[in-house]
Design a protein that fits this description.
alpha/beta; Rossmann fold; Glucose Oxidase, domain 1; 4-stranded parallel beta sheet; 20 helices; 12% strand; binds FE2/S2 (inorganic) cluster
Length: 576
């Protein structure tokens, strides 16, 4: 009897008729796996972020079972494995701090094991970029499946959206327009099925990025988690990943510069989350594509927002799917010449092959490019002496009247200072002021928390004012809205100019001119800089220590500096 033919990576474990092969097969057989599964067929790793602490991904074991059916059907050998999961609603200080840790878990789990192709099960916000980044650093044939959005929330006859209505209801409670009892009742009305946030928040945005990048099958973004077609997609993905291994269709053949440019334009067309900026910059860094913060403005600037979804609009992901989903949006972009049509996708076809004939069933939800929902869907990249390395603003979520504004700074040194002061009746603030929050960046929080859309003071909300200019080095939840300048780089915690702002300074925001200016004489800024002391001490040990010393700034995607790039999937040395 001879070794099985050396065709697959997994052969190095399962194909040998010697002591090592015995080790690798025998212990696997304790799971009741028959011998023929070790005959050299493609081994498909199903990388699962299932966890009951990540409610958005709590249905993933069922999805994994459907993937396995497809893998077996196509002649592959599926093996499910867990990685650390990131539940947005529970983890502290923030899931973003752990995105890079999970990417390391994914990368090392894939490389260390007998895996020929990978299915990534992704859903809640950071699970998507974390798994894509880790897999990209290995560069095996890889296909991502999103878990799908929850069904529309419903509260007393009104359609309500994840996150977006939490901000709204919270502001209403603070303004005395909603009782606490009603607020509590809305909890169970908002999250009423399996799935991730069903607004166009970060999870839905990143699921759309998976599809736009070509890393998922068509319609991956919008099929609701509980719709039977989500299981069909998982089944078909299982079949397809086996073929991808046979075709050697690796991630680097799909994640090209063209794919990222397509994704940036799709992000504009869906009014996507600002978090996508950071995640795609980091992913590009892993796969070796040159992508900069300015590319987001340059490539996405002209793209109108086509979908009327919360937080910018009225509808939710369930409506988006029934209206045609992402393929209908991509078709609009392609017809307008805003797409690299020949970008390859995981199904072996181009993005345009997949979407050229995609129907739209509801023009209220998905607008045509000639009559867009909003004229500007892209991300504005701002610069100036307050953000030398850039800051961003999402025009589609901002108030037009505030896009050009000069105001007096009201400064919060960190999030605790903000919480202590915001509702102090003595706080000297009115609606023309600019709220400035420091020390919430990648190193400052740590993990760059989603606190940039800080709630307005009660005394201003009670006047019926719902938006003010806010500036910080933090991120903002994809479900949030407002005239919010985010990701200021360098952040305050590393001594960026944001650290030097004081109460009463005048700040100028001019989105059309892409300008963010602190109107303080340079000599005074130099004096303040000399007196600056870091507010955040390095953590003494553990992952937090590693993170603190190696995290890059927001304009570079917040990856750890030593993780940029890839190490491939060469088989590590035998240890027995
Ligand atoms: Fe998980 Fe929003 S909390 S996707």
């Amino acid at each position: 009897m001879a070794d099985t033919p050396r065709k697959t990576r997994s052969h190095e474990w399962f194909g040998k008729l010697d002591k090592d092969g015995f080790h690798h097969r025998s212990w696997m057989k304790n799971q009741g796996l028959p011998h023929h599964l070790f005959d050299g067929r493609p081994v498909i790793g199903i990388c699962n972020t299932w966890s009951e602490l990540t409610p958005c991904n709590a249905h993933f074991r069922t999805i994994a079972e459907r993937v396995k059916r497809g893998v077996y059907e196509a002649g592959g050998f599926p093996l499910e494995f867990p990685v650390m999961s990131l539940g947005e609603t529970l983890m502290r200080p923030t899931t973003m701090m752990f995105r890079n840790l999970v990417s390391m878990d994914v990368e090392e789990s894939i490389r260390a094991n007998p895996i020929d192709g990978v299915i990534l099960l992704v859903g809640c916000d950071k699970t998507t970029p974390a798994l894509l980044m880790g897999a990209a650093s290995c560069d095996l044939p890889t296909l991502a499946i999103s878990g799908g959005p929850m069904l529309n929330g419903r509260f007393r006859g009104e359609v309500i959206g994840s996150g977006t209505h939490v901000w709204k209801f919270d502001a209403m409670v603070r303004a005395g327009e909603m009782s606490l009892q009603d607020f509590m009742e809305a909890e169970s009305c908002m999250s009423r099925s399996a799935g991730h946030c069903m607004t166009m928040g970060t999870a839905s945005t990143m699921a759309s990025m998976v599809e736009a990048l070509g890393m998922g099958l068509p319609s991956n973004a919008a099929i609701p988690a509980v719709d039977s077609r989500r299981y069909v997609l998982a089944h078909m993905a299982g079949r397809r990943i086996v073929e991808m291994v046979r075709e050697d269709l690796r991630m680097s053949k799909i994640l090209t510069r063209a794919a990222f440019e397509n994704a940036i334009r799709v992000n504009g067309a869906i009014g996507g989350s600002t978090n996508a900026v950071i995640h795609l910059l980091a992913l590009a860094g892993r796969i070796g594509v040159e992508l900069t913060l300015d590319d987001w403005d340059r490539i996405g600037h002209e793209v109108p927002c086509l979908v009327d979804l919360m937080p910018s609009g009225r509808f939710l992901m369930e409506d988006f799917y029934y209206a045609g989903g992402l393929p209908a949006v991509i078709r609009e972009l392609g017809q307008a010449g805003l797409l690299h049509k020949d970008a390859l996708t995981v199904n072996g076809r181009t993005l345009w092959d997949n979407c050229a004939d995609a129907p739209c069933w509801n023009r209220e939800v998905i607008h045509g490019i000639d009559a867009p929902f909003k004229q500007h869907g892209g991300i504005a990249v701002l610069r100036g002496n307050l953000a030398p390395d850039g800051a961003i603003l999402k025009p589609s979520a901002a108030s037009p009247a505030l896009m050009r504004h000069r105001g007096r700074a009201v400064v919060f040194e960190d999030i605790d200072h903000y919480k202590a002061r915001i509702d102090d009746p003595a706080l000297d603030i009115d609606e023309t002021c600019i709220m400035v929050l420091k020390n919430c960046g990648p190193r400052g929080y740590p993990g760059m928390a989603e606190v940039g859309n800080m709630a307005l003071p009660k005394k201003i909300l009670r006047k019926g004012i719902t938006d003010m200019v806010r500036i910080s080095d933090a991120r903002m939840s994809g479900t949030a809205y407002g005239t919010v300048v985010l990701h200021v780089a360098p952040e305050a915690a590393v001594g960026g100019p944001l650290a030097l702002v004081r109460d009463g300074d005048m700040i100028e925001l001019d989105v059309a001119a892409r300008r963010l200016h602190l109107d303080v004489p340079e000599a005074e800024l130099t004096r303040r800089r000399a007196a600056w002391q870091p507010a955040v001490a390095p953590p003494p040990r553990g992952y937090a220590h590693l993170y603190h010393h190696h995290v890059m700034q927001a304009d570079k995607g917040c990856d750890l500096d030593f993780l940029v790039g890839a190490s491939g999937a060469a088989v590590p040395r035998e240890s027995h």
